[in-house]
Amino acid sequence: MYREILEDIIKRSKGTDTECLLISNNRILTRFSNSTIHQNTGLEDISLSIRVAIDNKIGKVTINQLEREVINGALERALEIATVTPPDPDYCGLPKPSQISYREVPAINVTPKELAEKVTEFIKAAKGLKSSGALEVNNITLVIVNSMGISLESTLPYASIEVVVQNEDSSGYAYMMEKDIRNIDFELLGEIASTKARQGYNPIEISPGEYTVILEPQATGTIISFLGMMGFGAKQYQEGRSFLIGKLGEKIISEKLSIWDYPSHPKSISFPFDFEGCPRKDVVLIENGIAKNLVYDTKTAKKENKYSTGNGLPQPNSSGPLPFNITLLPGEATLEEMISSTEKGILVTRFHYTNIVDPMQTIITGMTRDGTFLIEEGKITQPIKNMRFTQNILDALNSVDMVGNELYVAGESFIGSTLVPALKLNRFHFTGVTR
């Protein structure tokens, strides 16, 4: 639909290299609070970036309209900028076409009324407890055309719901993200969140310290996604900013764990190509605890005489490539088996307000939220007040006792998804109690 427009820009550009990147999102959102829908809204947003290079001098202009006059003006400004900008010594040209085979997923067509009906299903399942959250449907289209011959267009649909159910001094949480809204069980999510809220009533306070923890997928997702941001990108490694410096080929976490950037997994939310038009590839980042590989974009790959793994962000950028679909491979344990095997520990539904303390040491800090429970003699016995943690991720993942047998999408971003199971860790450090 959009490729013809971008191909016409390429034909009219006088730049040595020209790249057009278009991102369009058709989004419908329904928000609710106190078990009442208070917003139904739709948004159609579009962004077109034109990047040209003349003798390694780069000009880039971004617009949000596709009228011919606006596009012509943007192209002219990009060319003007390229004539007065100092040369970029790191510019390495644009990627050439690669064979990419993919099947388009149908867009999600849904009305605000249908979203409201889905939300109502959730609210009814909460059985009188106050529910708040948001249900949204996105149909994101990514188009990349460049003067080297790349011409690609793909639409990525997904639906997600994030909800909190309140019960006086406690709360319960549920989240789900799927490529097809029909795969979301709203009634089940309502039951999960409301059960946690009821079980969490009147929590006790326990002392900070080191505990065995069982992380439900949402909590695991936080740990794994932060690890992914801290060092698997080739630019981070090349600039000495990665925790993996000197560790590739070495065991860094439990041999029970393998982590991939896994766009081809059936549950992953992923485009078939990146923001440079390079095919997305499955990359083994950690295999049985051993650090194996990094992810690359065009620039970082050429520095090492390698090929891009399809992890390029819109160029230019300061971040470099990142794993878009970080996935922790499943094990064999059920959540119930994890709990029953625990003499004393803490069950964590999710973390929030999580921040990086020291990326080279993989230390993060944050708090539990919406369902934190004490486990004693293999059973959940009491709700506990939320706690703050400060933890070295690699140390935590070296203490893995059991790995869940089911994968869940535990987080979303504009560029992908985090896919993880539950985890049982023998060592996790809590530093305080929230009040």
Polypeptide structure, described:
This protein is α+β, with helices and mostly antiparallel strands. The protein has 2 domains: 3-188, 2-Layer Sandwich (PmbA/TldD fold); 203-435, no CATH class. The chain is built from 9 helices and 19 strands. It has helices at residues 3-12, 68-84, 112-125, 186-199, 217-229, 234-238, 298-303, 335-340, 393-397; strands spanning 17-33, 36-54, 57-63, 130-146, 151-167, 170-178, 209-215, 259-261, 283-287, 290-291, 326-328, 344-358, 363-376, 379-383, 387-392, 400-403, 408-413, 416-420, 423-433. β9 and β10 (290-291) form a beta hairpin. α3 runs parallel beside α4 (186-199). The protein is globular.
Summary keywords:
435 residues, 9 helices, PmbA/TldD fold, six-stranded antiparallel β-sheet, alpha+beta, single chain
Q: What's the gist of this structure?
A:
By secondary structure, the protein is α+β, with helices and mostly antiparallel strands.
Annotate the secondary structure layout.
Blueprint: H1 3-12, E1 17-33, E2 36-54, E3 57-63, H2 68-84, H3 112-125, E4 130-146, E5 151-167, E6 170-178, H4 186-199, E7 209-215, H5 217-229, H6 234-238, E8 259-261, E9 283-287, E10 290-291, H7 298-303, E11 326-328, H8 335-340, E12 344-358, E13 363-376, E14 379-383, E15 387-392, H9 393-397, E16 400-403, E17 408-413, E18 416-420, E19 423-433
Parallel strand pairs: 7-12
Antiparallel strand pairs: 1-2, 1-4, 2-3, 4-5, 5-6, 7-19, 8-9, 8-11, 9-10, 12-13, 13-14, 13-15, 15-19, 16-19, 17-18
Helix pairs in contact: 3-4
Low-confidence stretches: none
Domain count: the total is 2
Task: Report the count of strand segments.
Answer: 19
The SSE string, one letter per element, is: HEEEHHEEEHEHHEEEHEHEEEEHEEEE
SS summary, helix count: 9
* Gap between N and C termini: 54 Å
Our Rg estimate from Cα atoms comes to 23 Å
Form type: globular
What class, by secondary structure content?
alpha+beta
Helix content: 10-25%
Side by side, the strands of the main sheet go 3-2-1-4-5-6
Main sheet properties = 6 strands, antiparallel
Taken as a percent bin, the fraction of beta residues is 35-45%
